[in-house]
Structures are given as structure tokens and as C-alpha cells.
Design goal:
alpha+beta, 10 strands, 29% helix, binds tryptophan
Length: 381
């Protein structure tokens, strides 16, 4: 399989970040059933949105300490699955990854997002209304603005913007999110959110969505499964038993909540996303749970097995996920951990539940697998 254009002039040592990510996108596009012409447009868009860092040779360190991925590649792919359909390919990227600080990073992000939106006839009005809240003159990290593209057929993606609730400092995050929701007309929404340890992201759907969402992401450290199962606030959301089953499958029943740091000193928290569409009810119309499967599996072979079980449980063909891992890397899943970064379960009113799999680009680094046994068998690398 060639990835025309991006293979040209590809000699060892000359590979660039943009070339690497574009080639991954072209291959994933095929798996997601996109027409070649659409994939090519999207690959070019990705390279353009990355800007100058796309040209950066991969033998140099990452352009910045992007929080998008563990190895600081400012790109992450995901496949969203539902029964009886090809998976939807999405790409998350940080347009300001080459900038020196969060203020500049945010300005680049806005400029690129507006440029792309203009090209596709999409309004950034909802984002513009919140600019002063999330992009103040001296914002704090760990992100300023990320952009996600849902790569649907037809060469015009659906667009999402991700903002930092802690842009004005962690202690002001709740106030920032409350104000943002209010400005968008969701006056009661903040009150509806469950408790969390931290507000992680604030996201907006831009453009041609049936029901554009405003989404709030929360982190939940060390919460037992039964309590995680009670975090949904949406009407007609998932039954607790479904969430517990998802957790069991995604973590391998190794939630880390009660068995201490057996495998890893630090596990990333579970995350929940609460999506608001209607301004009337005050309640979210969507709930998503994310499990950092890479912190609950010794290697990606195991993460892939978990994802496979999960997809089958939802009567979804897991083959595209297996193909996707082969598409993004030549390494064996067993030889690292983190290629599958998160597994997600999304419920949104009026839609069937979806399973999301987040796939790392690994442009810079592969995290070594966890040694299978403390003694005996060879520890791998
Ligand atoms: N890399 C960050 C994290 O691991 C942010 C992030 C990237 C993320 N993709 C995600 C968070 C998917 C949840 C789901 O937290």
C-alpha cells in the first residue's frame, strides 16, 4: 500500500512529522471506507493545519510538549464505531504545536481554525463568543486550542474545538466553564455536572452538526466502578450495569481503585464527557466515559484484545481496529503500550451507543511494554 505523494523523497532520516501523520491518515481513511480523493484532501488539510511543524524532520525532538499524546506528537487519530456501519475516522491536532508559549499557541490555533472554517463555509461564531474566556492574554497550560476533524465522506469534515478550562488558572476553571455554558444559553448546565477532580476540556461542535454540542470533560481519580456508573446525568443514559461492564472489559477488571499501584505507579484518571445540546432542560443529552486502557494493560496486544471484546459485545466488527493498528505502525502490538490510548463509550440521545478507540501516532516514541512477570520470562525490551 502506498500513500502517494507523501512517500515521495522518503529516505531514512528525512521523514517529517507531516509526512508521517499524512501517510497514517491515508491508510486509516481506506479502513474507514473513505474515497481516495477524500483521504487525500484530508491528509493535505492535516499537513496545512500543522503548519511549519509538518516539515520538521522526525529525528528532531517533538516541537513542543504537546498534551495530545504521551510522546508529544501533536496528532491523535480515533475510530468511532457503531453497529452495521464503517467506523468514522477522526483526527485531533494542535495547530500551535510549534509555538513558544500558550498565548501564541492559542492565537495560531484560532487563526488556523478560522481559516479552515472559512474554507468549508463553517461559522466559528460559538467559539468567537468564548474567545476572551479561554484565550486570555496570558493563558496557563496544558493546552490552548486543539482542533478535531471528523473525516466524513465528501471532503468537508465536521469540526470540533477543544479549549482549556484552566486557561485562567486551575482555581478559576469552574467559573470559566460556568460562564462559557451560560453564554451559549446553557444557564442551568453547570449545576447538572457531577463532581469530578478536575475540569479537563471544554469542547464545541462547529458547523454542520444536527445538534451541535457544548461538552465538558471531567477527570475522576480512583473511583470505584459503582460510583463511575452513577456519573451520567443525561435523561435515558446508560444503565449502571452497562457502565460497569464497559469498565470491566476496558480495564480487565483492573480498575486500580482498590488494588493499589500494582502495575504502574501512576494511572491516568477515568474521564467523563457531558454533552449539552438543548438549552431548555438544563441536563446533558450525552454522556461519554473514557478509560486510559494504556494504563491498564501491559502491552497493546492486551489493549487490542480488550477493545475487541468490547466491540463484539456491541455487535461491532473489530476487524477495522486490527487493520488500523497495522496501518499506523510496523511494530507488533506486544512490543509497546500506548498505541491504543483510550477506549470510550458514548451515549447520545437519539443515537445508538458508540465505542471509540483512540490511536496514537507514535511519531516520536513507543512506550516499552510492562514486563510480563517479575521473574522468569525474558523482560522484553
Ligand atoms: N493526552 C491527553 C490524555 O491522555 C489528552 C487526550 C488525548 C485525551 N486524547 C484523548 C483524553 C482521548 C481523553 C480521551 O489525557
Amino acid at each position: 500500500m502506498t500513500a502517494s505523494g507523501y512517500d515521495a523523497g522518503r529516505k531514512p532520516g528525512t521523514e517529517t512529522l507531516g509526512g508521517h501523520a499524512a501517510r497514517q491518515l491515508l491508510r486509516l481513511g481506506e479502513i474507514a471506507g473513505l474515497a481516495r480523493a477524500d483521504s487525500k484532501v484530508y491528509a493535505r488539510t492535516l499537513v496545512e493545519a500543522l503548519g511549519p511543524v509538518a516539515e520538521r524532520p522526525l529525528h528532531l525532538p517533538p516541537p513542543s510538549d504537546s498534551f495530545i499524546s504521551d510522546d508529544h506528537t501533536p496528532v491523535e487519530f480515533s475510530l468511532s464505531f457503531e453497529p452495521d456501519a464503517a467506523p468514522t475516522l477522526r483526527v485531533l491536532l494542535e495547530p500551535g504545536a510549534g509555538d513558544t508559549g500558550p498565548a501564541e499557541n492559542g492565537r495560531t490555533g484560532l487563526r488556523v481554525l478560522r481559516e479552515l472554517a472559512g474554507r468549508w463555509g463553517i461559522s466559528t461564531g460559538r467559539l468567537d463568543e468564548l474567545e476572551d474566556l479561554f484565550l486570555p492574554p496570558s493563558p496557563e497550560g496544558p493546552l490552548a486550542l486543539w482542533c478535531a476533524l471528523e473525516l466524513r465522506p465528501g471532503s468537508v469534515p465536521r469540526v470540533k474545538a477543544y479549549l482549556n478550562p484552566a486557561a485562567n488558572g486551575v482555581k478559576n476553571a469552574a467559573k470559566t466553564v460556568r460562564k462559557a455554558l451560560k453564554r451559549l444559553g446553557h444557564r442551568q448546565a453547570f449545576k447538572a455536572l457531577p463532581d469530578g477532580d478536575r475540569l479537563l476540556f471544554f469542547a464545541l461542535d462547529l458547523g454542520d452538526w444536527d445538534e451541535p454540542r457544548a461538552k465538558v470533560y471531567l477527570a475522576h481519580h480512583d473511583l470505584p466502578a459503582a460510583e463511575v456508573a452513577a456519573l451520567s446525568r443525561m435523561d435515558g443514559g446508560p444503565a449502571p450495569a452497562e457502565i460497569e461492564e464497559f469498565l470491566r472489559l476496558a480495564t480487565g477488571a483492573d480498575t486500580g481503585a482498590d488494588d493499589g499501584p500494582r502495575r504502574r505507579p501512576v494511572r491516568r484518571p477515568f474521564q467523563t464527557c457531558h454533552a449539552f445540546t438543548k438549552t431548555g432542560s438544563g441536563l446533558p443529552s450525552g454522556f461519554t466515559l473514557y478509560v486510559p486502557v494504556r494504563d491498564h494493560a501491559p502491552h497493546d496486544g492486551e489493549a487490542l484484545a480488550r477493545a475487541t471484546d468490547l466491540l463484539k459485545r456491541y455487535a461491532i466488527d473489530p476487524a477495522p481496529l486490527h487493520q488500523a493498528l497495522t496501518a499506523v505502525t510496523e511494530r507488533r502490538p506486544e512490543d509497546g503500550v500506548g498505541l491504543v490510548a483510550y477506549l470510550g463509550l458514548a451515549h447520545q440521545q437519539g443515537r445508538p451507543p458508540r465505542i471509540m478507540t483512540y490511536i496514537s501516532s507514535e511519531a516520536y516514541q513507543v512506550r516499552p511494554p510492562v514486563a510480563p512477570r517479575p521473574a522468569g520470562a525474558a523482560a522484553g525490551r
